[in-house]
């Protein structure tokens, strides 16, 4: 009896000490937070995303995770984690702005808790949830429905209650090893130009034949219209054509390994940019650190890297070539305009005409940037009140493309306050959706550009306000941004991609929806870093921008291209889908879970199809719903990235095996046979 009692006492002591020992706390900040994906900056360990003490509504917290919407942190649990608790809110460091965000917690992909929309100044909200039986936890911060701007979000005092043997491992499920799919170009010549090129009668004509193959290549052309000449060494066609019409030209390229030819329709008429613009823009790469020297080097690098041989041909200067009131650099200062109101460049751009001549000498075109307000988004001199002089300057310098923003126009939409531009904020965005007042400044510049003695492609950058795709053509624009600024994160690319369908019906030759520039390679807006998109996400980004018929503007440092990035940008079959002369925009015709299937009709009767996996799980399935994609009969399925036929398909009896990585794509062409 005694023995028994002793045993029981011993057992209960052991158990209680076990329980005692087992109850322990693991702080979120003790886990590896670097694997979190977030909209901006780096995950803060016991700090805000800007590296300051975590502060919510004046309350300072010693421990926690400071992040930026859109944010996701995945944690594997092994069943021994009992509880999660935290205090959440927006960090005070963004005082003066209007961030909003929602904190959400998912357990095994089911929503367990949500904070509701939180604003700056809201008291930290407590959360305490049981994790019994949960294997995978996700801490999410969404943008609260107003874009991810200034959303500095804190998981303060975040911790887990665990029992003995608990394991918590953070992870990122998206594969990070780059892999190359684009085959190397053959040594024999191949001409990669689009099938059509448009210019206005009497305008200076410049077209560099893009061709791969060992150099030297000798170029020739049949049926070139009167007024044009071709340099046989460089493949650059110059001159001007006075007579309207469609000229069916045959381009030829020859080297010691062989020869190639390709038809090119030269359309002399009112419409230009008959295929989406392809080139480079300084913003995503250099931001305000841009200079004439860097732009010249980018122009040389476009050639040296071989990108030019695949059709990339614009070199566009973005913001900060003008006087900059907000920048501290003395080279931004000086006079804004001369006595007659003609704009002056800042000292980093000593001679714009010389720069344009240099770029043209390479057979490339040059773009520039301005805003209809008195200030650009970056605080540089805008065109307000001087639109005529600016359009004339662009023409005089030899500019071929203008990106025209909205920034600060909101501040003058009803006139210049007190006749003082300095009273206008650079970031006054209001009013852009007004179909009268919001359209007016774009119409004004559109008219002026058309009066210039050269073709200037006109790109509107007002982020889609007032459904710009419905009226962009009426103001003589060739392309228009549909969404807000892109950044090199998955959330940004995904949200922009998913917002494109609404405008798709308005894409046509000479009118393109612009989902913003590419974020592959070394980007950084002046703070260079490798794109934070994972390789599969980059394939998805390029594939979708191709099928969207989006203007393709590379946003990275062209002097530092790695093999993986070059592989993304030099796939002629991917580019051909984008440059197809029919000018349709691919749209999503089917959604299966997180898989979206985009289809684009091509001129040759084939269909390009992107199977885009927006989910975090691999998609493995046997696909047979070809009807939903408008595909029937016998087909050859060609893998566009690998440039290989992969399947002879009978759409009634057959199926297509899909095996698509998380955040990745399969990009196929279906050709009737
Ligand atoms: C806006 C545009 C960007 C860039 C900057 C320059 O934000 O959307 O693409 O041109 O202005 O300040």
What does this entry show, briefly?
InterPro entries: Aldolase_TIM (IPR013785), Cadherin-like_sf (IPR015919), Galactose-bd-like_sf (IPR008979), GH (IPR017853), Glyco_hyd_98_carb-bd (IPR013222), Glyco_hydro_27 (IPR002241), Glyco_hydro_b (IPR013780), Ig-like_fold (IPR013783). It catalyses: Hydrolysis of terminal, non-reducing alpha-D-galactose residues in alpha-D-galactosides, including galactose oligosaccharides, galactomannans and galactolipids. This protein has 673 residues and is α+β, with helices and mostly antiparallel strands.
Major β-sheet annotation: 8 strands, parallel
- Classify the secondary structure makeup into a structural class: alpha+beta
| Strands side by side in the biggest sheet | 29-28-27-26-25-24-23-32
CATH superfamily of the largest domain: Aldolase class I
- Oligomer class: single chain
Helix percent reads 10-25%
What percentage of the residues does DSSP assign to strands (E)? 25-35%
Cα(first) to Cα(last) distance is 90 Å
Low-confidence stretches: 6-22
Rounded average pLDDT: 94
